[in-house]
Amino acid sequence: MAIQPTPVGYFNLAGVYEKVGRLDDAVRTFRLYLADRRGEKDTNIQSARAELRRLEQRARGPRP
After folding, report:
1. CB 17 within 8 A of CB 42
2. 24 three-class SS
3. Cβ contacts of residue 47 below 8 Å, gap of 6+?
4. Average of pLDDT values for 30-43?
5. Cα separation of the two ends of the chain
6. On the CB side of 35, how many CA atoms lie within 13 Å of its CA?
7. Confidence tier at 36 by pLDDT (50, 70, 90)
C-alpha cells in the first residue's frame, strides 16, 4: 500500500494548519490543492480559492 498526496488530503491538511495557526503552511497547502484538483467538484475548488484569498490577506496582517 502506498501513501501519496491527494487533492482532498491537501484540502484537509490546509484546514488543520489554519486551526493551529500555521497560516503560511495553510496557504502553501491550499496552493498545492489547487495545483492538483483532479476529480474535485467545482464547489470545492471555488471554496479552496476563497479560503486561499482569505488566508493570504490574514497572513499579510491588517493594512494601515
Report:
1. no
2. helix
3. none
4. 91
5. 51
6. 8
7. confident
So what's the pLDDT on residue 10?
Answer: 93
Please give the single-letter amino acid code of residue 50. Answer: A
- Cα–Cα distance list, 21 to 18, 24, 37, 49 (Å): 5, 9, 25, 19
Is pLDDT at 59 greater than 80 in this prediction? Answer: no
Q: Where are the alpha helices (DSSP H) in 1-64?
A: 7-19, 23-35, 42-60
Cβ partners under 8 Å of residue 56, min gap 6:
27
Record the cell numbers describing residue 45, joined without a space. 475548488
The DSSP 8-state label assigned to residue 20 in this structure reads T
pLDDT given at position 3: 77
Q: What distance in Å separates the CA atoms of residue 55 and residue 33, rounded to the nearest whole number?
A: 14
